[in-house]
């Protein structure tokens, strides 16, 4: 049912924000926040909850303290209520602090939205993927988390898994197994494959899983253009072996060989020429790769 304000979210949060300065045990000042939660789909969220209740729940989650966690839940606290002072949901906290499977499942069973977005529109799955948390990724996907949700940069969990610091490709495989779109683009027009161009194992894994290596971004660049521009000499033979378009031209008429010449990457140029790249293709300014190679030599 539509509310008087015209908003129709599953969870309607109404103001009742009372900010009071109070001293914590350590002598520091903090702000207590009281807010009234009115949930149109549940009756147990119509009372006023104090910050301390939410804080106790989040503390139990952070420390994986199951007895306290269960005790707080029994009070009837509405865990679907977003904690505005943290700008994230309780599942985000659970993922960040490596909560166990029992806590994750109990939160979802108790009403936590598995696709809840924080202030950057990241879901718990985004955070699990970027944080190399394979257990959480598997758990969230099994509970219905969307593998294709996008954050404010247009990135899916697969984009973030590619950009993460971990070397393992298991999270990539798990996301794709659960329907992650390997050819979706972020706000800059990049696919997960394009984002993986600097990490050989992740690039190879996505190719093995069926990513489109001839997909082009808004500027007409495919992954071979990206590899040549970034001097990724190990990746270029892999892409050539997988039948990438070698002489495709982007919006300025540049081929991968043009870009290799521009950045002065002799190894990239050699790989391309040995694979049969055309050396006489001209860009929109009428220049061949040789022109840019000579320009590099004059620098």
Automatic annotation (TrEMBL):
What protein am I looking at?
Answer: Uncharacterized protein
SMART domains noted in UniProt = ANK (SM00248)
Matching entries from InterPro entries are given as: Ankyrin_rpt, Ankyrin_rpt-contain_sf
| UniProt repeat feature ANK, residue ranges | 91-119, 120-152, 153-187, 252-284
- Signal sequence coordinates: 1-22
Entry annotated with the keyword ATP-binding: no
A Pfam family it matches = Ank_2
What is the organism of origin for this protein? Riptortus pedestris (Bean bug)
